[in-house]
Structures are given as structure tokens and as C-alpha cells.
């Protein structure tokens, strides 16, 4: 079964896409936890960090470059932002297609 995010990549379900390359897509989180909450997703589907190999992990470099670009585009590069990646249940991962959360646009409080 394709993941929810693969369905977004294939345009089978809608999303507010803000960035896309041949390897990465980014779109607004449907339930934002901050004024800016963007999900940055490698197009190659990998369920969790635990499933990375050298090839699939290498695309995360593209994701971080996307985070840098999106932060600039949204005007939060200097004010600050947080990048988060959840893995499995205790971290609250709900979509099993690895992704970065980019959060910002306001003070985010302590990390907990
Ligand atoms: P995680 O809990 O780290 O797996 O993050 C999954 C994120 O996907 C959550 O923040 C959800 O709000 C978000 N999400 C779920 N469905 C959609 C959707 N259709 N479009 C955009 N974001 C979504």
C-alpha cells in the first residue's frame, strides 16, 4: 500500500505544496502545531529512520536543503525554526513514510 505521503506525491490526494524537486516534496501540515508547519518528505518511500540504508538516508541531505530554502521563503530563517523527525510510537510517528517537520513563525517554547 502506498503511504499517505506517496498519494500526495502522486496527486491522488490534495496538499498545499510549497516546494518540490525530483527527490523531495514539501507541503503544509494539515494540523499545524505552529504558525509555520511544513512537512518535508523524500519521494522515495522509507517507513522509519530504522529502515534507512545509505541510499535512502542520503536523500535526507536534500530534505535539509529544502528546510533551509523553505525557512528563507517563509521569512523565518533568521527568527528561528525547529526541524523534528519522529520514529515509531513513543515519538508519536503516525505516517510511516519518513519526513521532517519544519516548525516556526513564532516562539516554540522548550523542547519536550
Ligand atoms: P508524524 O506524527 O511525525 O508521523 O507526522 C505526520 C504528520 O502528518 C502529522 O503532523 C499530521 O498532522 C500530518 N498529516 C496527516 N495527514 C495529512 C495530510 N493529508 N496532509 C498534510 N499533513 C497531514
According to CATH, the homologous superfamily is HIT-like
Based on the coordinates given, report the CATH architecture: 2-Layer Sandwich
Number of helices: 3
Radius of gyration in whole Å, from Cα? 13 Å
Q: What does the oligomeric state look like here?
A: single chain
Order of helices and strands: HEEEHEHE
How many DSSP-defined strands? 5
- By helix and strand content, what is the structural category? alpha+beta
Give the helix proportion (percent range).
25-40%
Shape: globular
Q: What bound compounds does this protein have?
A: adenosine monophosphate
Task: Tell me the distance between the termini.
Answer: 33 Å
Uncertain ranges:
none
Query: Going across the major beta sheet, what is the strand order?
Result: 1-2-3-5-4
* Named CATH topology: HIT family, subunit A
Fold and architecture overview:
The protein has 112 residues and is of the alpha+beta class. The chain has one domain: HIT family, subunit A (2-Layer Sandwich), CATH 3.30.428.10. It has 3 helices and 5 strands, in the order H-E-E-E-H-E-H-E. The chain has a 5-stranded antiparallel sheet with strand order 1-2-3-5-4, covered by helices on one side. Strand 1 (17-20) and strand 2 form a beta hairpin. The protein is globular. It starts with a helix and ends in an 8-residue tail after the last strand.
Amino acid at each position: 500500500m502506498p503511504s499517505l505521503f506517496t498519494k500526495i506525491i502522486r496527486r491522488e490526494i490534495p496538499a498545499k505544496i510549497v516546494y518540490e524537486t525530483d527527490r523531495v516534496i514539501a507541503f503544509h501540515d494539515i494540523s499545524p502545531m505552529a504558525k509555520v508547519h511544513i512537512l518535508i518528505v523524500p519521494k522515495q518511500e522509507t517507513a522509519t529512520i530504522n529502515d534507512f540504508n545509505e541510499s535512502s538516508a542520503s536523500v535526507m541531505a536534500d530534505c535539509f536543503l529544502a528546510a533551509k530554502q523553505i525557512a528563507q521563503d517563509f521569512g523565518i530563517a533568521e527568527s528561528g525554526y525547529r526541524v523534528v523527525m519522529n520514529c515509531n510510537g513513543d515519538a508519536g510517528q503516525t505516517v510511516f513514510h519518513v519526513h521532517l517537520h519544519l516548525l516556526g513563525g513564532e516562539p516554540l517554547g522548550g523542547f519536550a
